[in-house]
Amino acid sequence: IWRLWCSPASPQSVTSPFVDPYNRTQYCKWPCECPETPPKCPPGVSLLMDGCDCCKTCAQQVGEVCNEADMCDYHKGLYCDYSSDKPRYEKGVCAYMSGSGCEHNGVIYRNGESFQPNCKYQCVCVNGAIGCVGLCTESQPPRVWCQTPRRIKVRGQCCEQWICDEPRRGRKTALRHAVEAETTNWHKNCITQTTSWSPCSKTCGRGLSMRISNANERCELFKESRLCNLRPCEVDITKHIKPGKKCLNIYREDQPTNLTISGCTSKKAYRPKYCGVCTDERCCIPYKSKTIDVEFECPNGAGFTWKMLWVQACFCNLSCRSPNDIFADLENYYGYPEVMN
């Protein structure tokens, strides 16, 4: 009886449920055979070196199958969980590692979680930090013959498109004469390209914001700067908050005063608006403004003109950020850009 039980021909030994843990599938093959061009990954998916250290490949995402060759997207805090494939531990499933989440516009996102704050960006939370990629391709304005290009919002589409507004009386020159017109009057055909003003360099007191523009006679890109003062540093604005309220969105001095810079005084007296403060976690930042020219006079008789940010309205919200935050373009309130000229 003992011999029959242990015999290799026994049916019980053939149908044994045990699996050889050492007979594993070989996913890596050498020498490496890689495509000539790396794959193009969808927005938000990392391009990584595979686990064989051979080829570039698109990383596996949460819930997808992984193995020694197909790597999980560790940029999103993912790892390959082999716990359900005992005893071989050959195939796994991409899962989140423990890590701190992120907060954006009052919404908490888990570590490694992808989200779209709006239709123009795809973002991911990576251990407390948010990274984003643009979903709209940056297109160029129409060619030089179009003197008045502008971008418009198209119904049913997220990304804006360029159009050319022709004057009602029609072009004075036909399209075939565009090259000649460009040579004789090139400055008239200059397509103005101007970036948005950067956030103010200081949260209180006088600072600077910058932009790049070619709106000049030579149609050349230059860096422009303007003065900005979001709120005075020496005034305790919290004393002006009404009883029962926690925020003051706009603060303004009682009397107009002359502005000073480097010992020079503005020709006119101004009573600017400033963004207020909150006693809770909210912050107040400008969402509508314009740029004005301020003329200064100096004691020696010299004078100069400075561009200056003129705050028109501020908005108190929970999306607080520091100056020059790289995600400033993601913030949008009630359909208005944060700073509008």
From TrEMBL:
Principal localisation: other
Span of the signal peptide: none
Keyword annotations of the record: Cell junction, Cytoplasm, Disulfide bond, Gap junction, Glycoprotein, Growth factor, Secreted, Signal
Entry keyword Glycoprotein: yes
UniProt cross-references to PROSITE patterns, sorted A to Z: CTCK_1, CTCK_2, IGFBP_N_2, TSP1, VWFC_1, VWFC_2
A Pfam family it matches: VWC
BP GO terms, sorted: cell adhesion; positive regulation of cell differentiation; positive regulation of multicellular organismal process
Keyword Zinc-finger tagged: no
Domain CTCK: 247-321
Family: Belongs to the CCN family.
Protein name as it appears in the record: CCN family member 3
